[in-house]
Amino acid sequence: MTEKFDIIVVGAGVLGVAAAYHLQKSSPNKSILLVDSQPEAGQANTAMSAAAVRNMFSSTTNQLLTDSSIAFYRHIQEGLGFDLTMHMCGYLWLLSAGQFKAPSVKMWMQRMEKSDIHYQVYEQEELQKLIPGMTTKFSDDDEEAQLMNLNNIDYALFGSECGVLDPDLLVKFYKQEFIKLSKVKPRFSLPVTSLLLEAKPSLGLPGEPYVWQDKRVTGVRTPKGDIHAETVVLAVGPWTNSLLDPVGISSFVKAKKRQLFIIPASNHPPLEQLLFTKGFSKAGFLPFTILPSAGVYVRAVPEEKSFWIGCADKVGRAYKYVMEEQDYKAERSYFEESMYPVLSKYFPAFQNVRPVNSFAGSYCYSFDALPFVYEQAGVIVATGASGSGIMKADAIARMADALYRGEKETELYGGQKMPTTALTISDRQVEVERVII
């Protein structure tokens, strides 16, 4: 007997579980099946995230998506009492004088001001007092700094409405709320091998669908059999191409590997002092900090007494059309040869300290660094979050739900609205994002 549901949501990362929740909440009488290849929700790229959240974007679209999502996450924790281990420790963008005065940064600040995104400018002397162990100026005879093209730290932009959270807990919230509303149990360890594309209406002829027939995605194929649905929602990030390509639908995205290395601060007084840097926020620890050179960033994790060190290596790190197994393995040599030399120059406390653990995932990039939420031939695609999926997951999910229901506008958390077609392909209404980590 063929199984059939109203909606199948493929992918139980943060985008998938959030979409399943909002779809079920808005359409309580619809049967919605959530499926994922992993043993549990949120175990693929969501689990590999640095899980920091910011509204400090240059695109007003991204500002709206993230600002409303972060507000909802705060509501989950503060209003609903569901602990996400969310701390508003802030984001700290360290900049040289040249970077700070660049037209792109000036435009960024102007757009944030226009959107009421709060930020504060710190100068070198203030930063040195707040983080005394940080090197802000390299001497003229520092050959290492010159060789590595390291910039001095002359300014910083600090966003107080930014922070960090636990991605597993965020996924858990959406999953449990979806299960409360749904009559259909999610299915894990069930990979979707392909989408089902059929002629509508079918004439029962061999070889359908033909080019002259209307076509529609009618479900998914799995190792345990085909499952049909009126609508399929695809939220599989870097695996989007592998499912859309065979049915001739373009995703307009590609992936890039990202890695995180964990360095303990315990029993190392200089690192503990850096970890619990005070003065920026009530959180009482170092903000999520982006260095002015090489794309290296630092996330303090007070619960673990550790730091997560990452890098936005742009030119030089290959794009992948489809991610492979080796792309999910961190490269120790990459930390040693590329990240550590930069990190230890700006923060000498990291000298002679090495990672105890590491993990890798992938960003799913769109051409303008903004998400896609569009429908074609019966499949709603939510993809291309460009490394900031957690930050905007709630807003993306609400847009997918509004698209399913045929709403012209999507109401985001907090009451702000945007056109439901704004993140589609044919009617896209966005500004290109310039501030990507």
Topology (elements, then pairings):
Blueprint: E1 3-10, H1 14-26, E2 32-35, E3 52-53, H2 60-79, E4 91-95, H3 97-100, H4 103-114, E5 120-123, H5 124-130, H6 143-147, E6 155-159, E7 163-164, H7 167-181, E8 194-199, E9 215-222, E10 225-234, H8 240-244, E11 253-264, H9 269-275, E12 288-290, E13 296-301, E14 306-311, E15 319-320, H10 332-346, E16 357-366, E17 372-376, E18 379-383, H11 389-405, E19 409-411, E20 417-419
Parallel strand pairs: 1-2, 1-10, 4-12, 10-18
Antiparallel strand pairs: 3-7, 4-6, 5-6, 8-9, 9-10, 11-14, 11-15, 11-16, 12-13, 13-14, 17-18, 19-20
Helix pairs in contact: 1-7, 1-11, 2-11
Provide keyphrases for this structure.
437 residues; alpha+beta; FAD/NAD(P)-binding domain; D-Amino Acid Oxidase, Chain A, domain 2; 2 domains; nine-stranded mixed sheet; seven-stranded mixed sheet; 27% helix; elongated
Mean pLDDT: 96
The CATH class of the largest domain, by name, is Alpha Beta
The CATH homologous superfamily of the largest domain is termed FAD/NAD(P)-binding domain
CATH architecture field of the largest domain: 3-Layer(bba) Sandwich
Strand segment tally: 20
Give the overall form.
Answer: elongated
Number of domains: 2
Q: What is the count of DSSP helices, taking H or I runs of 4+ residues?
A: 11
| Rg calc | 23 Å
* Weakly predicted, low-confidence segments: none
| Beta-strand residue percentage | 15-25%
Major sheet characteristics: 9 strands, mixed
| Structural category | alpha+beta
As a percent range, the share of helical residues equals 25-40%
